[in-house]
Amino acid sequence: MTSSKQALAHPASSAEAAPGTPPGAARGAHGRGTPAGTDSWRSRLYRWDMKASPYAFVAPFFVLFGAFTLVPLLYTAWYSLHNVQLSTLDHQTWAGLDNYQNLLSSDFFWNALKNTVTIGLISTVPQLLAALGLAHLLNYRLRGSTAWRVVMLTPYATSVAAATLVFTLLYSWDGGMINWILHFVGVDPVNWRESDWGSQFAVSTIVIWRWTGYNALIYLAAMQAIPTDLYESAALDGANRWQQFRHVTIPQLRPTILFTIVVSTIGATQLFGEVLLFGGVSGSKGGSEHQYQTLGLYMYDQGWIIGNLGKASAIAWSMFLILLIVAAVNLLLTRRLRKSQ
What we know:
two-stranded antiparallel ribbon; mainly alpha; 15 helices
């Protein structure tokens, strides 16, 4: 009888709390010197921290993206609808779509677009094929494989100015090593800077040299993720290394190959530094006859040399729309690859 009265007189402990009560709730409410609402305040702070912390961690990226990408992009779109001169930024007149109509009727724009596509094809196709072959060689056990990987990244780490300067000397009309080799084998020297196909080929070699190793390492990482069981099964079926490469490696690398094609296409569309420095004095014009002027150079020439910021902004947005089309094609191809697999 006494024990039952004592049980009624004292509240249940935390171990004897009703089902559903948070652990330590009773102890927190009647603990030693702990206020009744402390644990509830801490639990609310913990829940708020769990919900808000991820957004706080990614907030710096969105702030920088908005300040240096989104705002300039929208401001460029606004400029493209106005007549704006670099010397008189405060005086803007509404032009509507006149800048875009002028682009579509401009021979220089279509010439720059054609040069961009041509240089992109000449530089991208050999670059990715060479990168795929180098990655296949590095995928096997080689002596000093780490050193070879570092060598692969050396061109990528080299500045555009330094690489272009070296290639400009190699393709020099008088005393260049390329013309010396052509003369040695009985071929007349080529004026690489003034020739139509020669200048585009020279610029493409700079791009190939800088980006082949980078893409090779991407392919190498994808190859090392391929299960070895597939190669063992192919070897048991009698497939040699070339057959394994064709029927095992290439199908497994399709998403990676598609990714590198899209990234290389975006880089070719934005090609600027190599062609500007290769042209020297006439670099912004893309040569004396605009024979290797890309869209990036055309935008730079209109905006900073001529000073027509409205037209330059329209060129920038045209490039952006081209990149959106490339991204849409990439999305469609990726979906088809997933369905086929």
